[in-house]
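Job type: complex structure
Entries:
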Amino acid sequence: MPLLEVKDLKVHYPIRGGILNRVQRYVKAVDGVSFTMEPGETLGLIGESGCGKTTTGKAILGLCHITSGQIVFDGEDITKQVKKNRSPYRKSVQMIFQDVFSSLNPRKRVMDIIAEPIRNFENLTPLEEKKRVEELLGIVGMSPTVATKYPFEFSGGQRQRIGLARAIALKPRLIVADEPVSALDLSIQAQVLNYLVDIQEELGLAYLFISHDLGVVKYMCKNLAIMHNSRFVEFGTSEHIYENPAHIYTKRLIAAIPDVDPTKRDENSQRRNAINDEYTNQRDKYYKEDGSVYDLKQLSEKHFVALP
Amino acid sequence: MEKLLELKNLTTSFRIQGEFHAAVDGINLHINKDEIFAIVGESGSGKSATAVSIMKLHNPLFTRVSGEVLFNGRDLLPLKEAEMNKVRGREIGMIFQDPLNSLNPLMKIGAQIEESLIHHTDFTSAERKERAIELLNQVGIKDPERTYNSYPHELSGGMRQRVIIAIAIAVKPKLLIADEPTTALDVTIQAQILDLIRDLQKEIGSSIIMITHDLGVVAEMADRVAVMYAGQIVEIAPIQELFQNPKHPYTRSLLAAMPSNIVEGEKLNAIEGIVPPLQNMIRQGCRFAPRIPWIDASEHEENPQYHQVGENHYVLCSCHKTFRLKGE
């Protein structure tokens, strides 16, 4: 049974205006997205800024209003209760944020930050709670003595690990990780990614990994969804997508990754230009007349692409 | 090769709680004419402080700069502000990281491009407008006339970065300093901007200093690279040499930390510890030593020196000779 099933999710934001402040039109942030995730799986959600990837993550967490569609978690339709405080669903799904400097309350000690979700759901004595916090800090490789410190005393990578400790405090089954390493330096990024992988194996977590960095995603994820204009343009295993991209947008995205081999510079630049030309000149082959994305159709068992 | 810019023993110190700490610690390098030179390093390595020192954009109350910045043989450091203003824009242009914050939100794009033309040329206003539109065209903006009359908030991030590049090349400076020009942009836009910078470099024939933390960008752009760590240049090499034959432990660790360099199933090479904050930096011996504790102290030099390991390829400290990555 899949862990998470998202069916035809739509999130539309109304734009109000005019004298009567009536709804004039909608911004379709997410417009018909469907996917499933198995327990313990990492699904990468990739796209450029404004494509709706963060909104998709937020909708799953109940952090924004769902216009239509269905979210099924563990076989249970929870579309109606995602926004309810203290519902058991809230316990099973957690989030890691991109900005490590604003996602931890600067006036709380590390132990209060990590214990906050525990206090919401479980009645532990202070001693039990302390033990639990220390255990969690151990999992993310930090010493128990940091529990009484404040966030400003830590570097970016350490803060992200505190954020990770908070996210796993309630033993969730799914973590939505929204660009968890894009604000970090390369060496620190490697640290955090290693912890993410270790913890996943240890706790059997599933990650919805939202990112624009295709190198990181390739390393982390088995399955990928490429999002453009509020919809999926391609969905499949990472081998399929990296080696056999079918949609022009995916091709363009992959061609744009800087190559670390300086000898291939001209070759890459030519390929990039060819793909860009195809993207601008043959748009109608890949997109509907109004610029929106077609429905996904199946290419092979685990490879879907949005083509007419 | 003719040298365009030469830094001699450049040291930039910032005042923190009453004491000065060197963020750039006596670096020596030169940039040739018609060359793209990359400075790569993590945050806190001093790469942006180097750029700011060349342009003299720091606040003199909190910063001390010593050494020499020789531009075409003339030292820029002793120049007065008024003289320096003739160099900025005219001789050395700068492209900043954040396209959102480096444009004035209350000024139309056209007026912002013309600003530098007013300072450095004696064009009439009609000529300036013509040149501004020509520049917008040159940086690949499709509807230059309309963009000329728009405000920054009406443009996307990639468009804004193009405008900033247009401003930087307005009077064809001989040297362009690009401080993380694509960090805030999406990959596809990044590729476009990098292509644009490369084409423009050929067109105007200027040199470029690219400051970045992204080794991929370096591989795509640069002719020569300097790797900075804790205020020092730890390795300097021609581009192919650096990627095919990296020597310094820091360079090698960074390359091994890149997710795209990893075979599936393997672990990423995380570098232990963090770049030391300025106040607590130990300035004796090899500065990278605390982050590779499995290397014996005797492998490092007491006063690290540069060693030549190839043509134009220099490495700091002798620890590169026996260094191996953890688990290797």
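Summary: The CA atoms of residues 276 and 282 of chain B lie 8 Å apart. Chain B touches chain A at residues 42-43, 157, 186-192, 194-195, 213-217, 219-220, 222, 239-240, 243, 253-255, 257-262, 264, 267-271, 274-275 (CB under 8 Å).
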